[in-house]
Amino acid sequence: MNNYFSRMTSAFQPQEYEGHSKLTTLREAVSKHVKPHDHIFLSQRGSAGLYEILRQFMDTKPKFTMSSIMVNDLQFLLAITGLATKVITSLLPFGRNPRLQAFMRENPLEIERWTIHTLILRYMAAGTGVPFLPTRSIIGSSIGQELKPEVYQEMTSPFGNESRIGMVSALKPDVAIIHGIAADPAGNTILTPDWTVDSWGARASGRSTIVTVEKVISTQAIRKYAPLVTIPAFMVDAVCETPLGAHPREIYNGWVNEIQSYVGDSQFSRTFQEALQGGDRSLKKWLKEWIIDITTHEEFLEKLGSTRAEKIRATARQQITEQSLEIHQAQSAEYTDVEMMAVAAARKIQEVVQQGNYRFIQAGPGIALPATFQAYSSLRAQDYDVEVMVGFGNYGFRPHNAALAGLPHLSTPKMYGSMFDMYGSFLRGPDSPSRGILGIAEIDKYANINITRMADGTYLAGSGGHNDCAMGAGEVLVTGRMSPQRFREEISFITTPGDRVRTVVTDLGILEKYQGSKELILTSYYAAKGTSEKKAGEGKNKNTIIVLIVTYFVFCQSY
User: Fold this and answer.
1) Is residue 8 in some structural domain?
2) How does pLDDT run across 339-384, given as a tens digit for each residue?
3) Which ranges in 73-139 belong to alpha helices (H)?
């Protein structure tokens, strides 16, 4: 008996490294696990893995399907180079980028549009082995109408009081390429926030998962950080150590002391954008210099240079340490129309939050973010208990700048939520204690919003979490400059139904759904600069009011 317990004790003694080692080079991992016609899940920060796919498959026709929660401009290289013929995502880097707009007009690329939440649900369904999962998002939108029946359907809920519920099918990539902070040789992996999406991408993978990490650490170290491990070793097929593997995007070390954080490399991103805008010859030159002629990730780091690498790490250390709000001195005492809109939005946010007793504010990009910060500051000054949540589920963070993401926002939250937490739980419908603040590209009189595709064929970014927020928040306020191009009788694509949008703040005035109306009604306008509210409508302000009312007549046809 003593010998038995002795053997057991010996067997369970912590070892420096445990399990079968899956360490390999990135070149070998991609060569072994990525095949033509594969559906590839790409991590948000997996630049190194992306570059290796480009090296190995350039000038071939593998006909990949690419899926990613939000496709960034570098990831879109798979489509531009012709390697991917189908893209599944919630967000694309189009904006009004003329190069990408021209590409979309000239090339038969299939795009399957989702929202952040619905796409996460598809990976979760595959990762949990069920054929579908329910959702409230995209009901009543053009997104749902464009999707094929084999991936999305609606039905009457068999439970509860929901009149309609959406069903999204499981999405199982062939191979997932994930970038994390650290892993042991066996593949137990620690991800950077938001870890939810990438972990479910790995769990959904039908054949292989390749993990690239900033550093390979011991199993003993992994045990120390066990609460941070989100991908277990048995789900991983290859582990590749790739320092600066997320470059030119940032990495937050997530409390793993062995790893150094770094900021995004704006200089590198700028050269890529210039090459992209410069046409095919310019882009081919950039691809040749930074990807094709470089055979390994180590060569990429050598070309990047140690000085540049240390600079982005040092900047990260500084940003994380300072934790102060960036204050920029105004260049003029005169306020702009956009600044007036932000202030008006902040006041309205404050008013509605207090009236509705909302507990947190979900803010989107653009004017929505500084307006939310201003409202938050005012509410806190009145001892009103409210928190702000943005981007990747960072809850209760201290604002540093007007960006949704970045290291200062990653290092200050009271809670690291996830995009699934945010859109799937915190924003849970009419009973959610939340106020959503969003932007617009086009809007109609019912507050239906388009941020996906214009009538002339111009592609916009897509939903991202816009639809999810509007469908899940207790109430929604949107901001946008008033013009005939934005405020339209009919919009060409409904990204977000206007059911829960109650207020629209513009640079000229405020529109609201007044006393239960389904249509937006003009409820206030701004006085001209230097004019008291009492004199608003007189003198110089008269023209402004006329423009607003004419615009409103075109928009709503009644006042």
Assistant:
1) no
2) 889 899 999 999 989 988 888 888 887 788 888 888 988 998 999 9
3) 77-80, 98-106, 116-128
